Amino acid sequence: MPYFTTKDGCRLYYEMQGLASSKPVVVFLNGTMQDTLYWKPHAHALKEHFQVLRYDARAQGKSDLGREGLTLEGHAADLSALLDHLGVEKAHLVGLSHGAKVALASAAISPEQIAHLVLCSIGAEATCRARYIVRSWLQVLKRSGLEAMVWVSLPLVFGEVFLKQKERILDSIVKAIVARNTEEALIAQLEAMAVYPPLFQIVRNVDAPCLIISASDDPLVTEEGARELAGLCSGHHEHIIGIGHSIPAEAPEWLNKTILAFLWSDARLVREKLSLH
Question: Which long-range contacts (CB under 8 A, 24 or more apart) does 129-135 make?
Fold first, then answer.
């Protein structure tokens, strides 16, 4: 399995499709409790036209927790170092929730490496409700364990439609999430997230073209917060109806088409036309 080791000795797991081709690079960044497997359908959908990089950030999936404390700036530095290691001069970033925050921080800290941003399920500032949801997850995790915490999070990270559609396999979904996480790593992630700076402070230094996507059935991010963030970075905003926080899992085909339409709106990227229907 491919690993990249950071300067402080933390091993980061990654998967690269189409390395060394002349195609532009798209990087997928995980949300909390997710790993590279989460983005597999999207990587498959985009691989014909892009090199695709998926990786687990510190404390996620197959990557190490590391000896240093987790910070948003540290995650951005890890991504920058990984891109340098792979010889990627410039990349398009697609992130969900925590991964979207890392993508935004990367664009602010290393703007020369970032071409476009597609950011799902984040707003200009965490709402009071969202802060207490994350705090409640941390308390459940510490007191009752990982499986209990995942069950508590399920109705908050997935929308009503998705939960109904997947009702018969929710036990399997929970088991899969538990299998790819550890209590120690997840506690470290949630504690770090609680002290991340608000995104409206970070976005001031972002020049990359940006698409912010929010969803109507998301209790963690409001449409107003996402629209405000898009305005602050002079970006575009899309709002999808009937979908929850986990937009890539709940509306994969729509998201793939939206990503391609946004990236391909820059004529320098491609010379052929894409049918979105």
Answer: 129/219, 129/220, 130/219, 130/220, 130/221, 131/194, 133/219, 133/220, 134/190, 134/193, 134/194, 135/194
CA 44 to chain centre: 17
| Selection from 59, 43, 47 nearest residue 23 by Cα | 47
Among residues 151, 4, 157, 128, which one has the least CA distance to residue 66? 4
Residue 274 pLDDT exceeds 60: no
Question: What six digits make up the tokens of 218?
Answer: 């998301």
Closest CA to 55 of 67, 37, 74: 37
- Say what angle helices 146-157 and 170-179 make with each other, to 10 degrees: 120
pLDDT tens digits along 106-160:
999 999 999 999 999 999 999 999 999 999 999 999 999 999 999 999 999 999 9
Q: What DSSP designation does 65 have?
A: -
* DSSP assigned state of 69: P
What value does the CA radius of gyration of the chain take, rounded to a whole number of Å? 18
Residue-range domains of the chain with CATH: 3-126+197-263 (3.40.50.1820)
